[in-house]
Amino acid sequence: MGSTPVAKYVYSRATANGKRAQCQGGAKNPLIVLPDADLEEVARSAAESAFGCAGQRCLAASLAITVGEVKSAFTQAMAEVAASRKVGYGLNEGIEMGPVIRAESKARIEQLIQVGMEEGAKLVVDGRGARITRYEQGYFIKPTILEDVNPGGQIAQTEIFGPVLGMIHVKDIDEAIALVNHHHYGNMACLFTRSAAAARKFRYEAQVGNVGINVGVAAPMAFFPFCGWKESFFGDLHGQGRDAVEFYTEKKVVVERWPG
After folding, report:
1. Which residue(s) pair with 146 in the sheet?
2. CA atoms within 13 A on the CB side of 131
3. Beta strand pairing status for 30-33 and 164-170?
4. CATH says 21-247 is which class?
5. CB within 8 A of 138, min separation 6: which ones?
6. Could you tell me if 169 and 150 are in contact, meaning their C-beta atoms sit under 8 angstroms apart?
7. Is residue 112 a contact partner of residue 154, using CB atoms and an 8 Å limit?
8. C-alpha angle with apex 74: 226 to 174, nearest 5 degrees?
9. CA–CA separation, 32 vs 240, rounded Å?
10. C-beta separation of 168 from 155 below 8 A
11. Does residue 171 contact residue 68 with C-beta atoms inside 8 Å?
């Protein structure tokens, strides 16, 4: 339950001199919301990011960092989206979120929600104890929101890998970026704003491998590398794009001279 990084995907290949490896680590993936952001669009994107796939993907957002006076409005908007999300068997029409993968995952997620409350967070939307008619044995947890999460606590440092969004409030963008950069994970971070200056600052200063501006999931297309930083990646060459080609390439340099 601690902050020890968990290796999710490990790729290795034999070479003439041994093995070369890539290892994707954990993630926390914060979303920063500035006061000038379009709240309707932010709430939609943040909900898809945090609760899509029941939060069980490496680029799922699990922290929202609100800046300045946007805190109350964003919290209310997210609470409404989370409470109204349709949870159930994923192949049924109209269902927006399915179960988590196994009983152990459900127990771990619910235990971490309790840890967050014990650390001082306020439970805005509680998704524990969900029961879905005809699927009572399913591992269902509904979208959950924790407000005023302790930035140094376990809930802010641990990848929950479930439909849980923690919220932290700061006074300005510099403090928000400092929170992102202080974290031991560096997989993804996104900024929601109408300010090109704020977006430029975030692009250059955020110490993460995948940066999003006004998107909830900064998933790179196949011709870009998947660039986790810090404890979100172990190795030299990332997956996808030219890095992936380099990873599977054994290079040879030939130097020749033909006198006469």
Report:
1. 123, 166
2. 3
3. unpaired
4. alpha beta
5. 89, 99, 132
6. no
7. yes
8. 60
9. 26
10. no
11. yes
| Nearest CA-CA partner of 3 in 166, 152, 159, 109 | 159
Active site residues: 58
Q: Indicate the SS3 state at residue 20.
A: strand
In the sheet that 63-67 helps form, which strands lie side by side, from edge to edge? 122-125, 144-147, 164-170, 63-67, 30-33, 188-192, 210-213
The pair of structure tokens assigned to 257 is: 């001279």
- pLDDT tens, residue order, the chain (260 aa): 444 445 565 656 655 555 667 777 778 999 999 999 999 999 999 999 999 999 999 899 999 999 999 999 999 999 999 999 999 999 999 999 999 999 999 999 999 999 999 999 999 999 999 999 999 999 999 999 999 999 999 999 999 999 999 999 999 999 999 999 999 998 899 999 999 999 999 999 999 989 999 999 877 776 666 677 666 666 777 777 787 787 778 888 889 999 98
Quick one: CA torsion of 232, 236, 238, 239, rounded to 10 degrees? -110
Q: Decide: helix, strand or coil at residue 47.
A: helix
| Boundaries of every domain in the chain | 21-247
**Cβ within 8 Å of residue 140, ≥6 positions away:** 87, 88, 99, 100, 106, 130, 131, 132
Retrieve residue 232's tokens: 């979100």
